[in-house]
């Protein structure tokens, strides 16, 4: 169809151009032939000329129109009735084109439809003014010209084009068919047949080692066959080379696998369960020493290698996996070596094939874990040693605490009794000497406490008793503690506390210990006439609403002391390190205080910081968490030194006659406590060990018992328990006295049945107060 369409349009366009050229020739010939006749006004000959031109092929009509639009001559004499017929009346659709050609003097070609037929209209204006106007009102000859008009029929041309296109298509079809037949014969003879031979040779070459090239024509197909033969030989050589490389790589992989299994001590086993065929890596047999024996061919043969104590566990674990109870078979067991020694292995496997619920194949690995088992055993021994060492350390700390505090109890107790004139009157010099002894003993006790506290923190045995405390009370009591030392050096003390402060969630005793330590250091390193400021600042995160309590409080101790060099600040919080460690150093100390400060604050979830400038002063800060309780109004005044100390309790007459059983094995402590209590009006009876204390509690029925915890024969805790079990002594108040001062000591004593707990060295005033409170509760 495409060929037909192209041929049709091509012929039609060609014929249309021929018609247009014929129309141009007719109008030109008509114009040339009629000029003389028109000039002679020979109308008859003009009409004969027009009619002659109308007889030419494809000519429908021919007209000569005067400049005024009137028809001068027409090929159809019947179309015009007289000479007064205008062209506009005859052909109204062409009147405008005729008028324009007459006026412009330009040849015009129009393609249109007349009486339902496609036509080509050619209008050619005359070159001269040969016409005499028939209408006196017509335009002047100088403005218009006469026009020769020919109308050519295109319908015949289209029929000719269609006929020609059909003829051309038939010619093309016939010639194309012949060409195709010829080309088919050529392709079959020169291409397909040789290619079929080549294909047959290729098919045969799959079963032969050589490509047999058939006989081919000496053309491109023959060249192709030769090329294929060459390619076949190259492919064959490549395959041989590839096979050699693969075999070499396989050998390398097998070698690496063998080396890897030997190094990692991992071997593979494969159990085909239907046939009971058991395949085992030979490496494990060599590892166990069975290299000269045949490999186990069945699973039951392999079970015989497993140590007899582990077989049941092995089979039970395997049974669970085969019944889909575990995703993977995994069992640690021992295998017997050739010499009879059991060695630990780890067997792991997984079912690979199954039909329904029946497993068909189990494949897995076996790994030597003897070194791991040995390491685990060694680790258990090491852990036991660590537990034992930790227990010995705890016992050492407890014993050290007891041995160090026990003599201090006698020293401080005797000193306190002498100062209160329990043993008689003393003069002022003796009082000063006793005060010196008390200060030195208290200092020694403080050092012992610091060392023990550091040891407890390092062992993770220091527990905090946190509660909500008032910040102002904490600060004022701490300032009162160092007030006298500051007055002796004429140091000005100042506190800056906001009016409303939230409570701190801390261990009050430990935080007071930290704050007093920082204040003591400030007094120690501040020259006479200096200044110390205790400042408390709420720390609020950005964009926090003021009415809400701050999450942290910062307590800062600011002094105008000697300051610290920048290179020494990092050493401050390290234990047993002093910045001035020379023999001629000016300031005393062990270097434990700030290390203990840092660790205690960090136990509370806080932080310690310091900024200092040499010769200007220092600022030590600690940040502690707040509670969500309501703010407490601060007091700007801190208590006096007299207020901070406990007054000696005044005993009632009924309490002065009370009988107290003192269970204590240390003679110095017995003399110290008994002398003080007797001076306060109490009656005392004594026990040297726990068994004697139990007997006296039953027989003497004392009003109160002071029970030392560490005693021979029977310790104090067990003695308290047995006293509580006896009906006669079950309700007697008991105060536990211990020099251990270790974590949970108070809880242990109270759990055993004690009513209260005091750690040595015991302050005599505190002891009397506790005794008085318990006796009042008992009465």
Strand order across the biggest sheet? 2-1-5-4-3
Number of domains: 4
Counting copies of identical and different chains, the oligomeric state is single chain
Which secondary-structure class do the elements indicate? alpha+beta
CATH architecture of the largest domain: 2-Layer Sandwich
Give the beta-strand count: 24
The level 1 CATH classification of the largest domain is Alpha Beta
Task: Indicate the radius of gyration in whole angstroms.
Answer: 64 Å
Mean pLDDT: 80
CATH topology descriptor of the largest domain: Heat Shock Protein 90
Q: Rough shape?
A: elongated
Number of helices in the DSSP assignment: 22
Give the termini separation. Answer: 132 Å
Which percent bin holds the helix content? Answer: 40-55%
Question: What are the segments in which pLDDT stays under 50 over at least 5 consecutive residues?
Answer: 581-585, 629-655
What do we call the CATH homologous superfamily of the largest domain? Histidine kinase-like ATPase, C-terminal domain
> What summary fits the major beta sheet?
5 strands, antiparallel
Indicate the proportion of strand residues: 15-25%
